[in-house]
Amino acid sequence: MRLPVKLTSALFACGVLLASLTAAVPAEAASISCTDTDLPVTGPGLPPLVPGAPATVHGRLCLPAGEAPDTVQLLVHGGTYNSAYWDLPYDPQRYSYQRDMAAHGYATFAADQLGAGRSSHPLSLPLSVWAAAESMHEVVGHLRAGRVGGTPFAKVVIVGHSVGSGVVAVEASTYHDVDGVVLTGITHLPALPVLALGAALGLQPALLDGQLGQLGSDPLYFTTKPGARAGLFYAGGDADPAVVAADEATKDQVSVPGMGTVALFGIVLPATKGITAPVLQVVGEKDVLFCGLLALRDCAHPDVLRAQEAPYYADPSKLSMYVLPGAGHSVALHENAADYRTATRSWLQNDLGIAPQGYHSIG
């Protein structure tokens, strides 16, 4: 008997996750530690009439062995993702940003944005880019105050992906409370026809999704349709089908008002004009959402792309650019993602003077 395609895909995704969770833990993994925590933040309101209600941001702190570093990277995932983007439950030695950074001497805290993962799920309508940025600002304060893992981090570098990069740009330009900014999966001129087509054909209300419908979300929370992520987020020649399956199995929802305000005020207008800290911008060479002719962006040549993006920053001398060859939108989940992580560590050391602590090689 031939199983339906959707059922076959679901069984394959479950098999991928089960295999990854039951596989023997590499000896090198014992050299790092990861713990989950919940932090109080202000939820979205409708100012000045309705103040924000108390909310919770869930996150995972990963540390290298030995004494905790004095710097932490705050990781902010993209739309329809949660913090699993940074610690995918499949082949972590190759694809986990958090575990690889910890093994190389860097601390990270991956947060679930409001509305996603194990963080609070407020109404979607007021969950704008400014509400999301305020919650991340409060997380920065918790990290500096030692309320995460008992370590008061002297430096915080905020790292975003896609929609999360728009949130990061607004956070950094509004509060000026971070020591460095990494923006991945964005340029300032997205390929609007591709984005419009992708939204029309690839997104649906989360309440209608077979995987996320049980969340009971309001109608303005959206997610990707089954099978859409491969075409939107990956470049075929640089993607492992098992990773795409794990991505599908851990997908999440995003607020439509949040996406809209991020696109307009976080990326296009742009918020990056107000960032005063050094910035590393990272894109995949074959990102169909932000690169190519329809985006008026040459992502094949980092120097050309940097020249195109530099006018959107207050101080272009603080902008560094890295292009991951052959990769699509979700740079952390491509087969050569290790090159992007290595480039990020080089930038941390060379531009910010942040050296690794407790280094333990995993490869």
TrEMBL record:
Pfam family, any one: Abhydrolase_1
Swiss-Prot/TrEMBL keywords: Hydrolase, Signal
GO molecular function, one term: hydrolase activity
Transmembrane segments annotated in the record for this chain: none
Superkingdom of the source species: Bacteria
InterPro entries attached to this UniProt entry: AB_hydrolase_1 (IPR000073), AB_hydrolase_fold (IPR029058), AB_hydrolase_sf (IPR050266)
Secretion signal span: 1-29
Protein name: Alpha/beta fold hydrolase
